[in-house]
Design brief:
This protein is an alpha/beta fold and 417 residues long. It is built from 13 helices and 17 strands. Strands 3, 4, 5, 6, 12, 13, 14, 15 and 16 form a 9-stranded mixed β-sheet that branches. Strands 7-2-1-11-17 form a 5-stranded parallel β-sheet. Strands 8-9-10 form a 3-stranded antiparallel β-sheet. The structure holds flavin-adenine dinucleotide. Flavin-adenine dinucleotide binds next to helix 1, strand 3, helix 8 and helix 9. Keywords: FAD, Flavoprotein, Monooxygenase, Oxidoreductase.
Length: 417
């Protein structure tokens, strides 16, 4: 008999993936501890958008989603405001969210809501993991402060530079996208900005976008500008001035949004991932969630969302499983991967490809690319129809709730197989 029923699952890293995993485990009655290297979870950055599966997952794992963000109707346009694509959701999503299934909010608000839902005794701060040893019947987790614990299951939710993944599988190299994004948010809305719209505009070389946000009952707007930028090149010295110079190529409200944003609400990120998503995530008594296995360009606007949904599925697939029973655990983790690998891999690929198409096409080809985007249904089909349909299908695959998985037939249909 190799059952170790009383020790909690150890989730490493309190970002969106880790917090969601801990909440989902707790919701189905699995003892869990969430270990974070910092004293408290820290919101990485300032702005975020969530697709419907993430909102549904948050609701199911006990997060208060009431008025959590601005539900936005979303369009892709060129720099002169010609609409190239409208993001369309299937009727079931429209019934629930209107057509604005894509929501905008601030990252600190998302973290606050998720952390508020965590029972006090789950999160353990100041616990940087520095050692993982899978002994077969249990895993030993060692911390920088010299302490250690044992657990029947480790979930590595420790982000793009995952120590856990490095220890278990080795880490593939960083893939530089050679892009950077500067973004911010303001509640000082200029004329022409509708806080229930997301407008994603592209010129020949730059993306300049804004979406509505809601924060503590207030309407506001988040914005970002994105351009090709060598991954090793230092950041511009003055982020606001740089963002303003890029925004001027676009309709007036874009530069006004930047101008209205306090410097402390402006951040910059170089864009990178770890290449293709691995086909197998789990090894022995260790599995993964979030950026640790599917770091994604913000072109997907879905990295945090996918991380949250990973947590939901870990709760659902491990519900009722005797974690001490190695074959039963293996079977449950295989099921989790079946539900997650294909979808997340497709999203990581699509996000990378969009970044290349919009920012790394050789100059002589750009007029042709833009003629295709302006005058054909190509972009509509890709980002307006098929990708929102693929993401919305996750809602079916998630089933009615954490304790009620979707029938296998619905899961297959949702994945189009
Ligand atoms: C510019 C930008 C815009 C984005 N926009 C969106 C968006 O609109 N929508 C969206 O869904 N996603 C977006 N993303 C992606 C999203 O931010 C990430 O996918 C998400 O944060 C991943 O969550 P995670 O929990 O896996 O990892 P992280 O958020 O990186 O969290 C990992 C946690 O693990 C902790 N940790 C690390 N190592 C250790 C250790 N050894 N021991 C203990 N703890 C450790 C860290 O401190 C951290 O708290 C964007 C990303 C960027 C860069």
């Amino acid at each position: 008999m190799n059952t170790i029923p009383s020790e909690p699952v150890a989730v490493i890293g309190a970002g969106p993936a880790g917090i969601a995993t801990a909440l989902a485990m707790h919701a189905v009655g699995i003892p869990v501890k969430l270990y974070e290297r910092y004293a408290r979870p820290r919101a990485a950055g300032n702005i975020v958008n969530l697709w419907p599966p993430a909102v549904q997952a948050l609701e199911q794992i006990g997060v208060d989603v009431d008025d959590i963000g601005a539900f936005c109707e979303t369009e892709f346009r060129n720099a002169r405001d010609k609409v190239r694509a409208r993001v369309l959701f299937p009727p079931s999503v429209v019934d629930k969210y209107g057509n604005g299934g894509f929501i905008g909010l601030t990252r600190p608000d998302l973290y606050e809501r998720m952390v508020d839902a965590l029972p006090d005794d789950i999160l353990v701060g100041n616990k940087e993991v520095v050692g993982i040893e899978d002994e077969g019947r249990r895993v030993v987790v060692r911390f920088k402060d010299g302490s250690s614990i044992t657990t029947p299951l480790v979930v590595g939710a420790d982000g793009i530079n995952s120590f856990v993944r490095e220890s278990v599988w080795g880490l593939p190299p960083i893939r530089e996208h050679n892009l950077h994004v500067i973004g911010g948010f303001t509640f000082d809305l200029p004329a022409g900005v509708n806080p229930r719209e997301a407008i994603l505009r592209h010129s020949r070389t730059i993306q300049a976008s804004h979406t509505g946000i809601r924060s503590k009952g207030r309407d506001g707007s988040e914005w970002w500008v994105l351009q090709a930028w060598d991954g090793q090149r230092p950041a511009p010295a003055d982020l606001k001035a740089h963002a303003l110079s890029l925004a001027r190529e676009f309709p007036r409200e874009m530069a006004q949004l930047v101008a209205n944003t306090p410097e402390e609400h402006i951040f910059r990120w170089p864009i990178r991932d770890r290449g293709d998503v691995p086909k197998v995530w789990s090894k022995g008594r260790v599995t993964f969630a979030g950026d640790a296995v599917h770091a994604t360009s913000p072109y997907a606007a879905y990295g945090a969302g996918m991380s949250i949904v990973d947590g939901y599925f870990l709760g659902q697939t491990l519900n009722g499983v005797d974690l001490g029973d190695a074959p039963a655990l293996r079977k449950a983790l295989a099921r989790y991967e079946k539900l997650r690998v294909e979808h997340t891999a497709g999203q990581v690929k699509l996000a990378y490809m969009l970044g290349r198409n919009f920012h790394h096409v050789p100059a002589p080809m750009r007029p042709l690319r833009d003629a295709i985007f302006d005058h054909t249904k190509f972009l509509q089909k890709m980002v307006g129809d098929s990708n929102p349909a693929e993401i919305s299908a996750q809602l079916e695959i998630m089933g009615p709730d954490l304790r009620t998985p979707a029938p296998v037939t619905a899961q297959r249909a949702g994945r189009g197989i």
